[in-house]
Request: fold
Amino acid sequence: MILNSPMKKYMFKRILFSIFSLLVVVMLVMLLVFSLIERSVIFQQDDVWNKRNNNDRSMYEYAQYQKYGYLTYVDYSSFLREKYIGLYGDEYDKEADFIKDRSVIQKPDEYLNNETVQEFKAKYEAEGYVIKYLEPVKYKSGKQKPGGSGYLVAVQEKSVVLRLWDYVKGFFTVETTRSVDDPNLEDRYIHFEKDPYSGLFAVTGSGTTHKYLLYFDGHFPFIHQNFIHINLGTSFTTYRGQEITTVINTPTGGLDPVKQQYPNKIGTDEYVDTAIDFHSLTYNPNTTEAERELYSDNYTTASFRQKGLSMLETSFVIGIISIIIAYSVGLPLGILVARRKDKLADKLGNAYIIFIMSVPALAYIFLFAAIGTSLFNLPYKFANSTNKVLAYFLPVISLALPQIGSLMKWMRRYMIDQMNSDYVKFARAEGMSEKEIYRIHISKNALIYLVHGIPGAVLFCLTGAIMTERVYGVPGVGNLLTTAINKHDNGVIVACTVFYTSLSILAIILGDVLLAKYDPRISLSSEGGGGR
Amino acid sequence: MNENKKVPQSTEDMFRFIDSNSISSEKIVAPRYSYWKSVFRVFFRKKTNIFLIAAFVIMLLVAFIMPSFWIYDPNENVTNAATFNLNPKQAMAYFHDGTLKWILGTGALGNSIFYGIVASAKTSLLLAIICAAINMSIGIVLGAVWGYSKKLDAVMLVIYQIIANVPYILLISVLVYVIGSGFWSFIFALTVTGWLPIAYFFRTQVMVIRDREYSLASRCLGTPVRRVISKNILPFLTSVIVTLLATELPSYINMEVFLSYIGVGLSASVPSLGRMIQQGQTAFMTFPHAFWPPVAVAAAITIILYLLGQNLADASDPRTHM
Reply:
């Protein structure tokens, strides 16, 4: 690293502060979504909830609330089961004591006298739970209403601090040889070996959740690792139960079978057409004998290889192309209009800038869509298009044109500021040609102000574009947050917040570093250089 | 003292000859400079500005007076399916009442698009003016103090970094969810943290001026802080404030359109351009007459506000007063 020591100290402080502010942001967002929004909204479109009645519905609510991270609860019946399994083993449910203890909660007048109930109550009240008794709901005739049986539960609301702690705890998972909890597995190791699928080497493990910990393949980003797993959050409604990192990274184009060999067939010439991605094998403790035969170990669960781009890749490809276009068109145009100040080119450029800056983004996106589809016959909806290359045109243009406008605006402004400075007059007096002055002096100094934004522009391609993706129906990540908000998918909301915040923190730090590298006069830390 | 009691005698040496030219040469003869007069002189020198002002006034008059005559009722034809999605020609032929009401056709529920746009323009303008007024005044006052006080700066920077990272769509959605999506709740949602970026921008501007020599001199002479801010720093930033206003005013209209599009906008009972655009966009290929007029009006309002603000900002920069 070229960073000197005060710089290192400065960066260290900054990163620490960034982590702190990230945590506070997550806590704030958790407060917003878990405390401010009435939690019962999650059942608005829930068919299961609609079908259940009375106490059954309440119990379903508890189960869902626990899943969504609002609270933890313990059902009396599961407590009972554990107690009696300990006493009598697997045949516990035939014991008279068990049946007596189980049925007592259907009798509101006497359940409190039962010893097991008292034990349950004492145990969980000591741990800070609140005991709730759901009385059996009956018709006047004494017959039980549907879903009306009685329940006894211990409920504990999750505090914000606890919720944040749970989130942070689950954020990183590091693979070790102790990751798999299976007493039958004795051979535990992590070592290098030749990877039969890529032909290169790979790091494999036994006792780890994943078989392949580091490997190469022909898919972006080509080097893959499973040592550290980052869990941004889990979706509850939109993508039932999936981790959001998996959702945005899985291609959506359907299965992609290729000629491959099962692990036990390696070395033979027996090939099969399968979409199984053998690099994604994970440990399955319930492996059958037949599977063991085929895979030659217990690593038998794998994901399928799919065609096409993932949500993240789609957004990134569109974003990065539009940025390349924007910078390679916007900057020269900015220089051009600055050189032709108050002439026709400048006036046209200004009119364009005013249009793009003031008109609602939605208006010009639709305007581009209308012009592109009617005049140039470009495909309108991304997903329905048969020509995959042409489909990128409209979204890329809709993203690039406003960026061109803003780059032009700032480039022109900084160029004009620099044009009147003394060093330019001096260069002119020295007899340098106008071309040289613009290229060597003015553009270089004007670019200083724009360098800071480049890392951010690249990184924010990863967040996608909300409006462009909606209008053209692009299957990208831009609308993750808005859909999550509409569906009260709290896990995704938190995940998006962490993702966006980390990107924006990283963008500013990288921007500062790039700026300091581009312009040596700028010093980030207060100790070095000329800053105060 | 004694000398004064003497009876004055008119002698030659009591008078001296003064050349009239030397008196006037002591005075600086310059036209009286008044800041705001010069601003308006420069502003009205440009002919386009007179046109823009006229357009702005007409826009305000139409948006604020006409809705009380042209009463917009989105559900008036909701039971009559024959009136749904009529283009201007069909609508004029169908209703045949010779008024302006159906000049732009009908929407998906037989509502008058023209009356809808006028009513929505009022909402959008009011929203922009109120939000800009609240955010700008809080932002400027707090930004001035924030930029001036170094102690406050450290604290405010932490708060800014944290709040700026809470996704604003989330914040607005949650607020709209909790306090409702009526007009005033929506304004609350847009202003509860909306002043912060303005204050941050303003803080940087104030910091630059704060350390200029003339401010230092004022401080050395013991001028109170309040006076330094109001007399030394704020007048210097007038053109910055007007530039900010020029981008802020249209931005709230754009924001409303955007939020309506993603589904967290104003409630259905408040007519708004964002909602009309959102409703029109689903079928913008088949019924373009329901989509483009509100888009065009939103674009016209934002362009007029932006240009007017930019030109006023140019005029309020004293360097253009030569």
About this structure: Chain B has a mean pLDDT of 82.
